Amino acid sequence: MDFNDTPQEAEFRAKCRAWLEVNAELKTKKTNSAKNMNIGNKSLLEAAAEWQKKKYDAGWAMIHWPKEFGGIGATPIERIIWAQEESKFNVPKGVYEIGLGMAGPVMMEYATDEQKERYLPPMAEGKEIWCQLFSEPSAGSDVAGLRSKAVQDGENWIVNGQKVWTSGAHFSDFGILVVRHDAGLEKHKGLTFFFVDMKSPGIEVKPIKQLTGGSSFNEVYFNDVVIPDSQRLGEIGDGWKVAITTLMNERLAVGDADGVDANEAFELAKKHDKDGEQLIDNNAVRESIADWYCEASGLKNTKLRTMSALSRGDTPGPEASITKIVSANKLQAIGNFGMDSSDMSGMLMDEKSDFIKFQMAWMGAAGLRIAGGTDEILKNIIAERVLGLPQEARADKGLAFKDIPSGS
Amino acid sequence: MDFNDTPQEAEFRAKCRAWLEVNAELKTKKTNSAKNMNIGNKSLLEAAAEWQKKKYDAGWAMIHWPKEFGGIGATPIERIIWAQEESKFNVPKGVYEIGLGMAGPVMMEYATDEQKERYLPPMAEGKEIWCQLFSEPSAGSDVAGLRSKAVQDGENWIVNGQKVWTSGAHFSDFGILVVRHDAGLEKHKGLTFFFVDMKSPGIEVKPIKQLTGGSSFNEVYFNDVVIPDSQRLGEIGDGWKVAITTLMNERLAVGDADGVDANEAFELAKKHDKDGEQLIDNNAVRESIADWYCEASGLKNTKLRTMSALSRGDTPGPEASITKIVSANKLQAIGNFGMDSSDMSGMLMDEKSDFIKFQMAWMGAAGLRIAGGTDEILKNIIAERVLGLPQEARADKGLAFKDIPSGS
Amino acid sequence: MNLDFSDDQKLLQEEAKKFLTKEDALKINRAVMDSDKTYDQELWNKIVGLGWTGIRIPEEYQGLGLSHLELCVIAEELGRQVAPVPFSSSVYLFTETLIEFGSEEQKNSILPKLVTGDVIGTLAIAETNSAPSKDNISVALKDGKLSGTKIAVPDAEVATHAVVVAKNGDNVSLCVVDLNSDDVDITVQRNIDESRGYYSVSFNGANAEIIGDEESGWSNLEKIMDHAAVLFSFEQIGGAQASLDMANKYAKERYAFGRPIGSFQSMKHKLADMYVALTLAKSNSFYGAWALSSNAAELPTAAATARVSATKAFQLCSQENIQTHGGNGFTWEYDCHMFYKRSKVLSLNLGSLPSWREKLIKSLEQANIKL
Amino acid sequence: MNLDFSDDQKLLQEEAKKFLTKEDALKINRAVMDSDKTYDQELWNKIVGLGWTGIRIPEEYQGLGLSHLELCVIAEELGRQVAPVPFSSSVYLFTETLIEFGSEEQKNSILPKLVTGDVIGTLAIAETNSAPSKDNISVALKDGKLSGTKIAVPDAEVATHAVVVAKNGDNVSLCVVDLNSDDVDITVQRNIDESRGYYSVSFNGANAEIIGDEESGWSNLEKIMDHAAVLFSFEQIGGAQASLDMANKYAKERYAFGRPIGSFQSMKHKLADMYVALTLAKSNSFYGAWALSSNAAELPTAAATARVSATKAFQLCSQENIQTHGGNGFTWEYDCHMFYKRSKVLSLNLGSLPSWREKLIKSLEQANIKL
């Protein structure tokens, strides 16, 4: 066991680091990188585009892609090393991740050679932004229960319906989309996958106002939107097969909950007093922080074990599936702790106080426990795919989609 | 709102009290009433029989029964008042409760007049002890999945099979019994209910050794046991209907977990030090005790609300169903707390120490979370019967019992 | 034995529920959240018109002369519908202080105006982001003049008066201040619940009149906090019940995988856990109501017990109501967030959950109460 | 980057697993529980024969001269099969003390005998039912003679020697004592796990020899506890894994309501929770193993982190394994109770969960480590 890179890994890390040091600014304690997309926050879009282009020009944009699309064919462990190093620098985030992380792999696997040539380089360069259009008002945990319809019309498809929870739809150029082409088939068999120009007539994007008051997501309405059959990815009826890869990517990508963690709770407790006593001298606080620390450390070391497997060239185990369950619930608890720590004034949201990040955590965590797979769905996945427990009998099994009970 | 008895209630309470004071000894702090049945503990059996007879002779044995069987036709609130007063005295427990609480009501409802005359007075008097024979090795949470067979043979039935978790089987004179008379019918429809003489040839009783090392329960084997059809309770095929009343009685009867509670944790914390500090000065301990106290107080006041409803003559709500879930889990947590409190020596079982009751709690709680309905079954009951949530589709619905998947 | 409300009290509760449902208090609350307002004037006027602000005020001061029990059932209904009115500040905190500790003159001059709505009150305690204690009060009363700044004062903008906890020489005293005075500056403070208003209030030599024994300010405050804890706990169980009801309804109506999500065992057990927490809290709140209305010696313990379990129940129920609603639960459009935010504000308004657990244990240490 | 064991270490683990499975250690443990014995002599002899007691002992003392990592994988397998042998006392506690702090002479005279099994050791710390601390040690060492009583000493009956934590004037010192001496009385103490032996050990002027610097006894003990915490954590994750595996198997095989109980969502989520706790604990134990084997400055933090999460994981998994088994889980006949009891004994043997949470926070305060 050791925490050091192999010589090759160390060499690669040094290369990443060298380029980053020239082209970006190291994070400091005071740096607050702009993490969240805000509607119309043009400066973030511009900054992100600029950074993406810089990386692309130097070959760092999508290092695991083949050379012809702008990559360097990097190994999984090299991807991680790059990500680790990049994350130490203050660079814009939140614009390209979904497109590159989800649309990228699908296009790479299902698009024609001409389409790859046309779409992948601008995607990597940051010229064109992509979004993902899966969830619907009646299809959340049960994504395959989606109802948006595509009807074939010669060389085209006419799409009607509504998508929700689409990050970045309002500034995206393209989207990947799964819709139902035949409600007379079984649920998973009647789906087909496309990519679509987000500027197409009939597409309307509306922001969703969240519990927090902010709007990071959108509803996207499709009214007789025309999509050429050439933009179909996979065969007619293969939509679920194409989508499932993307969803697994999403569940991995959501990963760790951003925000306060055991360290921040510890810092607050050392700094803050309550009832005349330093919070850190309160055993109940000490016990909670100890437990959060163990969870955070457990997640970190689980990632290192996954990396170790990648480093050896092995396929990592399913351990990663636990990250979001643990971190989102921990975030909610720590948020609560921070607010309770300032007692009668714990509801006051002062941008300059130590407490605001705990309040944001408490609000955000309520959404994180749902986004990208609810606690309940993720536990089902662990139980069924990792532990091999039997699935429940499906109420929708063998039924045509239109005959599945929907309560409406 | 008030905690006082109505004048009638107060008068009845005084009557109970007066008789008890003459005939029994008030509990003191040091009294440890013999609560658990032990195999061959003759003195408990004798003491219990003596006390039961005393109560019977004075009309206190089964006060809610009609006069003809030894009762006084008491109201529900009078029953509670009697039980409250009796519980303040040091009297033997653990021998008659199941028979009187479960066999009694069934016999009262389903037996013939002659049978009632024959069996109920000796049951109330304590001359004959009754037990309950429902659970089977393959039928625990799913009691109706039981497999013991009864085959009709003229005026008799021949019973074969095995029952488990039968308290007091080894000293009981009679038992109530549900068995399957037709495995070709649906699960709930093929059951029939009997009472049986426990001294019948072919009945064999074996104690079950528990996690604790003790044996409060038995396995009961039936080998060609003959039961006269006249001992059938209810129609052939009505076994489930008869059993379900009894089961609900059991779930109410199990009720509160005996053993250490918030008070005992509080006393230990005030008395004990750890790391040189009084445990009660540790905020983590204070917070835990506060939460346990709130749970215990919540259960107590829930009972008082139920009593208030009874006192008004109303039917109480379903609140009682929560008692066992909350108290068994609390018991396990408090047991753990007590053992952790003595740190490196927390495993030592010294009968004279303050810790032994916490160790017994920790062991016993593991069983209490299962006995009389697991946590999981009880939560289902709350969800379905109290909150009205829909049942799951039953995998065994509409199937003949013999065709239900059983994994074997 | 009767740990329940009387038929008259239940009737009052039923009427309150009907009134608030007819007014659609939840919708009014949403409108307040979407505006710059922190309460709804019209709903408040109607509540005053119904006499609710005078429930506990004796008839000689033009109140209804009823007991705390009537206040409890009203509180539960206000909590159920997240009503955006300064009721808790004015009635549970300010009016209770006046009734308990006001001089005859103070009662005469203020109580009738609380009934008519001409006076709305609040209570100003906190000054820092630590839990208030005898030792960290620095707002000072000297020669009848008050100076210093309070923070997180609820409803200070709509309130005409405040009871202020002040340092008075070596003592901590309670005093009443007219908030409309020129010597008082009130600034809104952003908070997590857009339908509630919290303010910093600066006193620049404002006139203040001591209420109650000037040496017993802190212990009088503690008594008021015990009263308020019971009343708040009813608002909290009302909110918890509403959250559970919402989750229950949604779990029955929302389908996934071809069946109502409420038929999935994890949802059943989630809702059962909510029901258990709520039932314990409700029973403890009933006990608190009894202790409050009968002025029992157990009040400090009963109040803290009600408070701790009601805080836990409302936080759990409102949080898991969001989770039950999935993505919809995280939107502004669904009502779930109103309960989530209100649950936290109600829990902090009187001091945090850890603070009340501590009060509970202290009361047990002092009273030697057994279950 | 390699937070994993080497192929050789994994091979050793595989062999240990095969050996203990072939011996049927779990069945041997049951036999010990059903008897008056507190360990199994034959299994212990075979373990000694395999050289496991000498894994960490340098070759110059006839040991295998391997690292802590080899000990970790053995510990995991012993935990998985609840092996009834004095391995933890003799190897993780006694041998570690000798290796870390023994003089050349002490090493020469004792280490080779630990390899051959002629010496079996243990560690005697506790004297009261409070957590041991520098200040509550009263067993006294004076002029090379030891007097006083230790309690809850594991494996004292089979052990030939003990390291004893003793008051030595103003210092706390560690010393080695021959337990077969006439001046030592050993009395069995009943404990919750019938397959483990705990004893009170009275010293009546027994000869004792100081080990390590006589002024550093307490800090040396703390170092040994950190070592042992990592090794115990591997026993604990082994036991947790076995408990989860049992529950998983039963949930697939046991039918109720016409379907395997493992198809019910509440069972799935219960097992998923166990898996999550175990995975976190396992990863933290790997981290602890790295810190131990590389003698890293982070050891106190890494050891406490491994210990806290492994204790929680084993307690949860063994407890919910019983619950998964329903009534059967509460019987003596099923194996569940062996893991439940062992989980608690392993957690208490080195000091309770609250004590280790406290050690973790203290280490964070001292080291200023960040995640």
Structural features, described:
The complex is a heterotetramer, with 2 copies of chain A (408 residues) and 2 copies of chain C (371 residues). Chain A has helices at residues 7-23, 42-58, 76-86, 97-110, 113-125, 239-254, 262-271, 283-311, 322-341, 356-368, 375-386; strands at 130-133, 149-153, 156-167, 174-180, 191-197, 203-208, 217-228, 232-233, 273-274, 277-278. Chain A is an alpha+beta fold. In chain A, the strands form 3 sheets. In chain A, strands 1-4-5-8 form a 4-stranded mixed β-sheet. A 4-stranded antiparallel β-sheet of chain A has the order 2-3-7-6, with no helix packed on it. In chain A, strand 6 and strand 7 form a beta hairpin. In chain A, helix 4 (97-110) runs antiparallel to helix 5 and helix 7 (262-271) packs parallel to helix 9. The model of chain A is unreliable at 32-40 (pLDDT under 50). Chain C has 3 domains: 7-116, Butyryl-Coa Dehydrogenase, subunit A, domain 1, CATH 1.10.540.10; 121-214, Butyryl-CoA Dehydrogenase, subunit A, domain 2, CATH 2.40.110; 218-367, Butyryl-CoA Dehydrogenase, subunit A, domain 3 (Up-down Bundle). The relative contact order of chain C is 0.11. In chain C, the strands form 2 sheets. In chain C, strands 1, 2, 3, 4, 5, 6 and 7 form a 7-stranded mixed β-sheet that branches. Chain C has 371 residues and is α+β, with helices and mostly antiparallel strands. Chain C contains 11 helices and 9 strands. Chain C is globular, with a radius of gyration of 20 Å. The mean pLDDT of chain C is 97. Chains in contact: A-B, A-C, A-D, B-C, B-D, C-D. At the B-D interface, strand 9, helix 9, helix 10 and helix 11 of B face strand 8, strand 9, helix 9, helix 10 and helix 11 of D.
